[in-house]
Amino acid sequence: MAVKINHNTFITENSPSICSFASIAGSKEGEGPLGACFDQIEKDSYFGQETWEQAESELQKRTVQLAMKKVNLQPEDIDYIFAGDLINQCTGTTYGLRDLNIPFLGIYGACSTMAEGMLLAALLTDGGMGGKIIAATSSHFSTAERQFRFPLSYGGQRTPSSQWTCTASGAVILSPSGHAPYVKGATIGRITDLGITDANNMGAAMAPAAAVTIKKYLDDTGKRPEDFNVILTGDLGIVGSQLLLELMQKDGIDISKQHKDCGASIFDPDQQDTHAGGSGCGCGGSVLCGHYLPQVQTGEIKDMLFIATGALMSPMLSQQGESIPSIAHLIHISHSKEGA
Amino acid sequence: MAVKINHNTFITENSPSICSFASIAGSKEGEGPLGACFDQIEKDSYFGQETWEQAESELQKRTVQLAMKKVNLQPEDIDYIFAGDLINQCTGTTYGLRDLNIPFLGIYGACSTMAEGMLLAALLTDGGMGGKIIAATSSHFSTAERQFRFPLSYGGQRTPSSQWTCTASGAVILSPSGHAPYVKGATIGRITDLGITDANNMGAAMAPAAAVTIKKYLDDTGKRPEDFNVILTGDLGIVGSQLLLELMQKDGIDISKQHKDCGASIFDPDQQDTHAGGSGCGCGGSVLCGHYLPQVQTGEIKDMLFIATGALMSPMLSQQGESIPSIAHLIHISHSKEGA
Q1: CATH number of B182-333
Q2: What is the pLDDT of residues B96-117, one digit of tens each?
Q3: Which of A87, A109, A193 sits opposite B106 (nearest CB)?
Q4: How far apart are CA A146 and CA A152, in angstroms?
Q5: Which residues does chain A have with pLDDT short of 70?
Q6: Which of A43, A119, B158, B339 has an alpha carbon 20 to 30 Å from A310's alpha carbon atom?
Q7: How many Å apart are CA B279 and CA A191, to the nearest integer?
Q8: What is the CATH code of the structural domain delimited by A185-334?
């Protein structure tokens, strides 16, 4: 079982394997700099369905099915699945997964969902409480924008700090044994709120949560940024990434050489008019599964930290003048099963 | 660590202790047949705040604080907390808990949240991955009704099968050792959808999910209804409870002697105009913590099953003509640490 080394930080004992991973993205994401990395690009933003919400459900279902297909698993081979998304009542997830009949644990962490699900799946697998556990998430530009900001047909102008919700999904399968990548450790995040109230500046709201969680893992494990090839955040975007580097620098920690951000990498801001970058649960999920996990599998990346950040914001509470609480969960992913 | 006996059913090895539990309810719940069981009744539906959403946050925070206070724990003594609620983006939870600074794992299971959180907390505690873990949830009549059904000021007439969302919260603390009650086992639910589309008949939507989960636990463990003093469902209400008994009877399982439902018990339908009974995450949470866990602690109840049921419905998807997927998670709670 995983060893709890300080309240919310864990080191796994048996290094559970991420034995399969899959990513599916929309056409805009497919045209971006990382387009070639995704398993599938779907050109139809409706995914063959009638509404955007049904489209997101179809997207997440297909991604979970693809992760299973890659390792010849059927739904009945899976013990249970952790999944969630951005949409009210997590319908992208619940309506997407209901036909698969896999025991289901719903999670809500906004864009931190991919790391939250992987963390829980890894701890339970490592503790012998699961043979094959899936963690999955999704987001869809059209479901998220109209829910969190403006009706799409309103055509509102977007601010420079705003991010573009990705149409994308990622899914992983955790197993007690198997090939690389392996999960070596994890830190559960704390809700952090420094008073940002602008729903178009989520990067600034989320950066402090990422800084708190990264520092906690480094402090608790005695590791340094140089111990990792990549320190990957979920969707801080261009504005939030800069802020994270500054916040870490203030504490004397320089992660500028290792730091990458899924949101800042998935689009070309000049060519794709995406302002501060991508966002959404599926941004971190798809870029991790499409671009990074294959490199950990081959050993090109030896060790990496994945810190998915979530802006726990609500249009209702924003209308009531509230600020945006944020959270970031961390997992340490490695090419080697042995060693620290 | 807990032993997985069949995919989604677990028997705990060390019987983690529910070392503290607390419940707070609103005035209508306080006037009901179980009113005397709650730790606190709050007469102000705003809980001293300015909006209902802030009120629900305050309610959940106070309940978590009370559970800690009862056993002299501070937030820094808690490893992490599982919590969620019914409100979009789970703001009752995130805004309520942000000041406590406890590492946080957000869950979404609608009214199944109390059982989902307890199940995860119990498995991780039993696996040595947590010293003190909290599971909490809440609901508020005024936040839920206007979000899921009609604006309160509209004054719409309620149908006979409709349920009354409780203003209530429950919180428990799981610990590897301590006094009764103990968690002995658990079953993770599957999403079940038999095609009910009426958001005013959630009991009918949720009853099949409860039946599936209860049968799974009995089948996997070889136990019979007679092995339990109480088989407690969350908020099927009067209509859903009747349906559950019929569904179980069809499979030759008679739980009529053991079955109780929090939603069917919390109000007096004749005196309180609550139609089919109470509902909401806080209904099951507060009745479990207020009425049942004290009886397990004293030994008046030796063994019970708690099956919290969630209607994973969404106004958006209902408007799109969709049916209501439902889920039910189960935990087995016992007065004795030893024995099956």
Answers
A1: 3.40.47.40
A2: 999 999 999 999 999 999 999 9
A3: A109
A4: 6
A5: 1, 339-340
A6: A43
A7: 28
A8: 3.40.47.40
Q: How far apart are CA A172 and CA A18, in angstroms?
A: 6
Interface check for B77 against chain A (CB to CB < 8 A): the answer is: no
Q: Which of A155, A143, A19 is nearest to A93 (CA)?
A: A143
* Chain-centre distance for alpha carbon B14: 23
The residues in B 184-203 lying below 8 A from A, measured between CB atoms, are 188-193
CATH of A3-162+164-174, one of 3.40.50.150, 1.10.3430.10, 3.40.47.40, 3.30.930.10: 3.40.47.40
Sign of CA dihedral A316, A322, A324, A325: negative
Q: Is A103 in contact with B189 (Cβ distance < 8 A)?
A: yes
pTM of the model: 0.98
Positive or negative torsion for Cα B22, B26, B27, B33: negative
Between β-strands A182-187 and A9-11, what pairing exists: parallel, antiparallel or unpaired? antiparallel
Q: Which residues of A touch B79 (CB under 8 A)?
A: 4, 7-8
CB-CB under 8 Å, A105 with B105: no
Over the stretch B121-132, which tens digit does the pLDDT of each residue have? 999 999 999 999
Is B176 in a helix, a strand, or coil? coil
Distance CA(A149)–CA(B220), nearest Å, equals 47
Q: Does B297 touch chain A (CB under 8 A)?
A: no
- Predicted interface score ipTM higher than 0.90: yes
Pairing mode, if any, of strands A9-11 and B164-165?
unpaired
Question: Is the backbone peptide bond immediately before A181 cis, with ω within 30 degrees of 0?
Answer: yes
Among B residues 213-272, those touching chain A with beta carbons less than 8 Å apart: none
Same fold, B3-162+164-174 and B182-333: yes
Other Cβ atoms less than 10 A from the Cβ of A135: the count is 31
Q: How confident is the model at residue B160 (pLDDT cuts 50, 70, 90)?
A: confident
* Average pLDDT over chain B, rounded to an integer: 95
**pLDDT above 80 for B1:** no
User: Distance (Å) from the C-alpha of residue B46 to the closest C-alpha of chain A?
Assistant: 15
Domain ranges, ordered by start, for chain A = 3-162+164-174, 185-334
Residues of A in contact with B64 (CB under 8 A): none
Q: Which residues of chain A neighbour B104 with C-beta distances below 8 Å?
A: 188-191, 327
Q: Phi/psi at A282 (nearest 5 deg)?
A: -75, -15
CA-based nearest residue in chain A for residue B53: A317
- Which residues of chain B have a CB within 8 Å of the CB of A124? 123-124, 127
Pairwise CB contact (< 8 Å): B1 & A91: no
What is the Cα–Cα distance from B315 to B307, expressed in whole angstroms?
25
Please count the residues of chain A: 340
State how far the Cα of A235 lies from the Cα of A258, in Å rounded to an integer.
16
Q: Which residue of B85, B206, B316 is the best one to mutate when testing the A interface, meaning the one whose CB has the most A CBs within 10 A?
A: B316
What proportion of chain B, given as a percentage, has pLDDT over 70?
A: 99
Of A256, A268, A251, nearest to A231 (Cα)? Answer: A256
Cα within 13 Å of Cα(B307), Cβ side = 32
